[in-house]
Amino acid sequence: MTQMVQIFLLGMSLGGVYALMAAGLTIVFGVMRIVNIAHAAFMFIAAYITYFLFQSFGVDPILSILVTMPVMYLLGVVVYRLVFARIADSSRFAELTVLLTFSLALVIEGLLGAMFTNIYRSTNPRYATDAILFGNFYLPEGQFYATLISLALLGGLWLFLRTTRTGYAIRAAMQNRTAAQVVGVDVSRISTIAFGLGMAMAGASGSLSSFLFTFFPGKHWEWVAILLSLIVLGGMGSLLGSLVGAFALAVSAAYVSYFYGPTWSPITFFLALFLILMFRPRGLFGKPMEA
Q: DSSP states of 136-175 as a string?
């Protein structure tokens, strides 16, 4: 029984980071219906920025969030205006975004490979290998800090969406983009801000991932199915759903890793994605599919 509780705690300690990863992808899809295949690649940009700051200037990976979030926000604004804004009114916008983001992912992978080569890298602050002990249980210190910060950022995002005029507009666009435009919401501006926020969340999760996981430019493809499974389980466009889905799958993957070995852990996400799309395409908190 003690071992089962310990595995649960380990899964929960990663769930917050997964939720932060999924939150950015959920906002981008909810407002603009962009299926962002390049989200993990943008996370890796932030991870490499964090790695550079850590190696060159000794900046703590957690503090580097203060750099990666605004940098990735600005990058997101530029990318949206240059790539997506011009096709926003296309009848095949969703399909085009899959191809465009796939291309972006390839470009980012090539640029990162040319700059940093394909060597596995990670930041190694002191807390990355320490543990917090309490009774018969322990928590990896790095995962604990990362989850606390992720939940704090998600809480800040929730407050922003609930208490600001821009947040109201983003939520309106997520619920019904056309109706929001009819009542006076500048959908183009809101879409730009929302894409920037999604990239800012990717920046924060990339910084936190830099000491939780090893990375190299091509590894972002391994995260695509994981991120999609997180938001599909909760419901495409649902922030609450992405949070619940992240914790549920993180804990499930921890148990699979314990019983069958870490090699089988990723299949938790792939199988979940397959089953959800087969039996409940709208996810746990998603809106019913329209005819």
A: TEEEEHHHHHHHHHHHHHHHHHHHHHHHSHHHHHHHHHHH
